[in-house]
Records
---
Amino acid sequence: MSAIFLTFLALFFIHPQGEPLHPEILVVPKGEVLKFWKAIKARAKNTSYQLNTPIIWRGPIDESNTETQIKIVNHYIHSPIKVLVLAPSHSKLLIEPVTKFIEQGKKVVIFDSDLDEKVYHSFVGTDNLKAGYKIGQYFASQMPKNGKVMIIHHNKNNSSTKKRILGFIKALKDSPKNLIIISEVQAGQSVGKPFHLTLENLKTRPQIKGIFAPNESTLEGAALAFEKADRKDIILMGFDINQTIYQAFLNDYIKAILLQDPEGLGHQAVTQAIHLLKNKPIEKYIYTKRILLTRKNFHLAEKHRLLGYFINH
C-alpha cells in the first residue's frame, strides 16, 4: 500500500514540460487549522513550484497530535523521500524518529520549533527567546508598578512557545516595576480553553493587570474573553495573528502583537531542503523576521507583508 500511495501522490507533481516528478522532500507541519500553518503551506508550495522541486505536505489536523507526526515520519523512513522538513510538536518524542530517518542516509530540516537534541542538519524559525523578551519588555513598560500578571501556556512540550514564555518572564524580571506572576494556566491547543480560562481568571482574580498569550490559539481565546467581558483596562499581548485577533487589536482589546513571518518560514525551510537535496551549502540556523505591532507603529506596520497576508486572505 505504501508504494501505491507514493505513486498516487507523485501524479500530482508535474514538471513544467509535462514529465511527472517524484517528490523527494516531505514537509510535516504541526497542524493544518491555524492561519499560521496555512500561510506556511502556501509559501512552501509556491517555493517548491518556483524552484521546480516538488514536495509532499502531510501533517496532523491540530498541534496536539504528536503521535500522528511520529507515524508520518516513520512511514517515510524507507521511502524515496530524501529530505524531511519537520515542525516538531514535541521537543523530545520526535528525536527518535528523526534520528532513525538520518540513519538511513537522509537529511532533516527542523522549522518553527526546535528539538531538545540538535540531531538535524538545519533549523529555520523565529528566535523565540529574543521575541519573547522583546514583547515582554513592551508589556512591562505598559504595566503599573507591582502589577499582577497571568500567563496562558500553550503546549508544555512545544519548544517555540516555551522559549517565548522564558524570554517574556526574563523581561518581567529585568523590569524595575516588580511585576508579579500570580496565575499560569495550561490551555492546550484549542481556542475554547483559553477563552474559558481567561474569563474565569478575569472574574476570580480582579488584581490581574496583564495577560500574555504565546501563540495564535491562546491569544485568540483570550481576546474573545476580553471582548465578552468588555475589558479594555487590562493589558493583553501575545504572538501571531488572524482576522479575529486583528479585529480585537483594532478594538483595543489587544495592546500589542508579536508578528512572526510564516511565509518566510515556509520559503526558507523548503529552500534549505532543496539545497540539501542538491548537495548545495546550507546554513545551520536561519532566524526569520519578526515585528512588534503596537498602536504607535500600526499605520506603518499594516503595510508590511507580515500583517498584510493575514488581513488580505
Note: The radius of gyration is 20 Å.
---
Amino acid sequence: MWSGRLRLPAVLAVSLLAAAPLAAQSAAPAASTSSTRHDATKPALNDPTIVAIFDAANTADIETGNLAARRAQSADVKALARQMASDHRTVRQQGRDLAAKLHVTPTPPTDHTSAEEHAKVMQRLRTTPAAKFDCAYLEHEVAFHKAVIDAVGTSLMPAIQNADLKSFVQQVAPAFQGHMMAAENLAKKHGCEAPASAQ
C-alpha cells in the first residue's frame, strides 16, 4: 500500500469545485448585499465555461491514462488505463463536435488553475516509484471521477442552458460512474487504499 497517494484529483477537482459556488450563485437569489458582494465579482457559470471544463477533464484523464498505459506494472491496470484514455478521447471529441455544431467557443473560467494542478498530478505520477505506481494511479482515478460526478450533479447540470449540451452530459455521465467503479474495484484487487466512492 502507498501512503503518499495523490489526494487531490487535479483538473476537475479545482475547476469543478470552483464552479460550484458560481452555479449556486446563478440558481439562488442573493440573501443579502454584504454576503454576496465577493461572489458578484465572479462570472456566472455558463455553457461555454462548462464545455471548457468538460474538455479539460477529458484531456486530463487521457493524459493520465496514457501515462499509466506506459508505466503500470499490472496488465489489468494497463488495460484499464488504455480504456480510460480511449473512452475520454471519444467523449472529448463528441463534446468538441457538439460545441462546433452549437457555435459555442469553450471559455475556461477566469480563475482556472486546473492546468497547473494537472501538471502537478502528472509530475507526481511520473516520479512515483514503479512498484507503487499502480495504486497511485488507481487512487487518483477513483478520486478524480468522484469529483467529476459530484460536480456534474451539483454544479454543472443545474447551470447548463442548452438542451443538447444537457442531454450530452446526461448521456456520458454513466461512463464516469463506470470508470470510477472499475478503478475502485481494481484498487481493492491490488490492495490499494483507494478512497471509497460511497456511490
Note: The chain has seven helices and no strands.
---
Amino acid sequence: QWATHRKRILDRTQFVGVGPAGALANARFQSVALTRDQVLPSFLGGLLSILNKIFIRTEGVAAGRFRRRRPFDGLCSGVGVLLWLVGVPASAQTSEAAEEKEEARKPSPGSVLVGRAPSAPRTAVTFDVLGSHAFDGEVKDTSGSNMSSTSLYARIALLVPAGERLFLSFPIDAAVTFYEFSGDPRLLPGGGKPWDQVRTFSIGTQARYRFDHHWAVIAGANIASAGVRGASFEDTLSGGGTLGVAYSFSRELTLGVIVTAQLKLAGGLFVLPLPIIDWALPFDEGRWRLVAGALRVGPGRAAGVSIVYAPSESLAFTAGIAFLGLGREFRLASSSSVTNGVGRDSAYPVILGMEWRPVRQLAFAAYGGVSIFRAVTVLDGAGNTLNERDVKPSPVVGGRISLAL
C-alpha cells in the first residue's frame, strides 16, 4: 500500500526545488484526492518520498543544476515542505503575486540601498558597534603640531513594520572621540589645545513608505547633542531631519535623492543633498555595484560613494570615499577662551574595506585608507570663523560589528 500511494503522490506532485528554511521555489501542485482509509499510508509514503527527494538550495534551482543530498542533510527542509503541504488546500497554485513578493525579498549581493527596509516583515532590533583611528597628521601653518583621533560609536535601532507599505525605525546612537594634539595647533586665541574629548548622542525616528514596486519616500527626524567634555548640555543640543525619494527601475537599478539638514550650534542650517544610487553594473553577473548614500563599510554617521564587489552573498569588498562633515560640529567647553565657541572636524577618508556576513543576522567589517582634505576649525558664538587649520593626509583604520535580532 505504501508503494502504491507513494507513486500516486509523486505522479501528482512535482517538486522543482527547495529553498532555505523549507521555502518552495517554483513549485507546482495538482489536486490529490484521498479517501479516509488512504490518509495514513499516503502520509507515510509522502514523508518517505520527501526525505528521499530533497534537492539543492534555491540558487542552484535558478541555474538549472540539481544534486541529491543525503536524507539527513535535508531533514529540516523536508519537514518544512511537509508542513507546507499539510497547511495549504490540496488544489493550491503558486500565484504570480506571491512569486513577485518572494523575488523582491531575495537579497542582492552587495546591495546597500539607503533606507531599504529589511526583507523580513517583522519587528527586529539591530545593534552596531564601530571603532576607528586616524593616525598623526601634521597641522599646517604651525610649528610642527600634529593631531590624531580615536572614535568609538554604538547604535541600537528598533525596526517596526506598520502594514505592507510603511516601515519605521527608532534609532539611538552615541559616540565618543578622543583627540591627541602635540604642540600648539593655533586654533584658540590664547593658544593651547582646543579640545580633548568630544561626546555625541542622538535619538530619532525614520520612516520608509513604499507607494508601489518602484516609488519610495524616506523621511526622518532627530534630536542630537554634541559637545566637548565640560560643555553645558543645553548648549550642545540641535535638531535635524532627512527627506528623500527613490525610484527602482528594477532589482538592478535604483536612483533617487536625499537631503539631510541639521541646525548649526552657532546658528544657521547645515544642508547636505546626496544622490541615492544602487546599480548592479551590467557585467560579471551583477557582482559589482555602484552605491551612493549610506556606507556599510566606513566611519559611523557617514555617507559616501563606493564600488562594491560581492563574490558571494556573505562576502563583499568596498572601495570608496566618505563625507565627514554633517554631525562633526560640537560645542566647546564652558571654560574655553571662546565664549559659546564651536569646534568642527571635517575630513574625506578614501577607504578600502571588506564585509563578511557568516549568517544573515551577523556582519563584520574592516577598512583602511587615507584621510584627505581634513580641517579643524574654531568658530565664535555667532558662527564666525576664528581659526581654521588644514591637516595633512594621514592613515585611517576602522571596523564594525552588526547584529540583528
Note: The two ends are 47 Å apart (CA to CA).
---
Amino acid sequence: MKIFKARSSSPSDTMRLARNLAAIVPAGTYIMLEGGLGSGKTTFVSGYARGRRVSSPSFVLSNIYSGGRNPIEVRHVDLWRLPAGADVSDIFAVDDTRQNERIVWLVEWADRLPVDFAPRDNTISIRITSPRPTSSSPKLTSGRARNNENDGLLTRDIRVAVYSERLAAVINKLRRVSVYQ
C-alpha cells in the first residue's frame, strides 16, 4: 500500500488536489471517499469533475458527469442514505463491461459498501478528516495569506491510499506536484 497525506486549508485547496488527481487517475478506477458529514467529500468530487456542476446525489444516489475536455465519464455515487451492506448492484450496473473502462467512480460514504466490493488493484481510498493539532502533514497552499488556518474550521487532513502497483504511479505523480511539497 502507498499513501499520500496532505492538509487542505480551504475548499479551494481540496478542489485543487482533486483536479490534480483527476489528471492522473486512469479510467476503471473506484475512488472511495470516506469522512464525516460536511467533511468535504462533495467538494472533492466537484474539484475532480473540473468545474462541471456537481450536487450531492444523496437522494438520487448517483449522478453522471460527462463531456468537457476529459473523455472519462465521472460517476458520483452517494451512499449516505443506504444502510451498510445494502444491495448496490443496480447503482453500479453498466450496460457493457467495456464501458467501465471509460468510467471513474467516485463513491461517498464508501464504508457502507462490502469490503470486497471493488477490486483492490482498481481502488483509491481517500479519507477526509478534521485534524487534531499537528504539523506533520504538508499544507496545501493557494498562494494567499492564511488567517490562523481559518481557525481550523476549514482545515482538513486528506489521506490518499492505493493498494496496487498499477495505481502506485498515481501517488508518485501526486508527490511530484510542487504545491504539495
Note: The helical segments are 11-22, 41-48, 165-176.
